[in-house]
Design a protein that fits this description.
alpha+beta, two-stranded antiparallel sheet, Alpha-Beta Plaits, Arc Repressor Mutant, subunit A, four-stranded antiparallel β-sheet, 277 residues, globular, single chain, 10 helices, 6 strands
């Protein structure tokens, strides 16, 4: 897997918990990933101009305000199971038919992060099992691009045909297969990392850990009986263990550049990823 300079910068800075990093540190970190210094500097300039990054008085870079809504979702993977509650059979709906073409493209990201799927043209739904109020959900959706006037509402019951169709909007078998495949990849890498050279361990933990975190961040958080939630919980537990190893792989590098990292590198490319299953 080859990272673009833009993705690499966002991925790496997302680990710093609001802290900043000098250009020389970013350049040094990018080298093992095959990213040239000039490409990295061009990407920095573009991200800064877009407001995605900020530069402090020392010339060091951190994530900007425009990246915070996505970053909030990215770091939520650790508390994934705290975001759900037992499902009572209800649904949450959004009338996307009221959106213009431009708004529809913007709010696609919001739908993706919260696992909404189209039940009928202009009508998106998901199980009502998220541990938030409708007002809180609406606020988070708006922060990710949903126009504020768009109605978000609870549905106590669907007719029998719609209920049956709604349950098939997600490929549950594929989700479970991906949980198991990712957990296996983490286990294999966990055994391999201590044997690798430090640079190779940094690269592997960055790429694999980022891929799995992206998977978790975009997971639709389906309830039982639509999906086997125990498989999802097992993957989260495996990623927590792997995250500690990734942090250890990167600690010497961050120390060298006087940056204290709170997290192992994660993947912020969820913003541009296609819908999950």
């Amino acid at each position: 897997m080859r990272l673009s300079a833009k993705s690499f910068i966002l991925d790496l800075l997302s680990t710093l918990g609001g802290r900043s990093m000098p250009v020389r540190g970013l350049v040094a970190a990018a080298g093992p990933f095959g990213i040239e210094a000039n490409s990295l500097r061009v990407a920095l300039a573009r991200l800064l101009a877009a407001g995605t990054l900020e530069r402090d008085e020392r010339g060091e870079y951190r994530l900007g305000e425009r990246a915070q809504a996505v970053q909030y979702q990215v770091v939520s993977w650790r508390r994934l199971e705290e975001r759900v509650r037992p499902w009572r059979g209800g649904w949450v709906g959004i009338h996307s038919s009221v959106l213009g073409r431009t708004d529809a493209r913007r709010c696609e990201r919001a739908f993706r992060f919260f696992g909404f799927r189209e039940l009928a043209p202009g009508f998106e739904v998901r199980p009502d099992n998220l541990a938030v109020t409708l007002a809180e959900l609406h606020h988070e959706l708006v922060s990710l691009g949903l126009p504020k006037p768009t109605p978000v509402f609870a549905i106590a019951e669907l007719d029998e045909a719609s209920q049956a169709r709604a349950r098939t909007l997600w490929d549950a078998r594929k989700l479970v297969a991906e949980y198991r495949r990712s957990a296996g990849a983490l286990e294999e890498s966990e055994a391999r990392l201590p044997k690798l050279a430090s640079g190779d361990a940094m690269v592997e933990s960055f790429l694999l850990g980022g891929r799995v975190i992206r998977q978790l961040v975009l997971d639709p958080l389906l309830p039982e009986p639509i999906v086997d939630a125990a498989e999802r919980r097992a993957l989260v537990a495996a990623m927590r263990r792997y995250n500690k190893l990734g942090h250890a792989c990167w600690r010497p590098f961050f120390s060298e550049y006087r940056v204290t990292s709170l997290r192992a590198p994660v993947d912020s490319k969820a913003e541009s990823a296609p819908r999950a299953a």
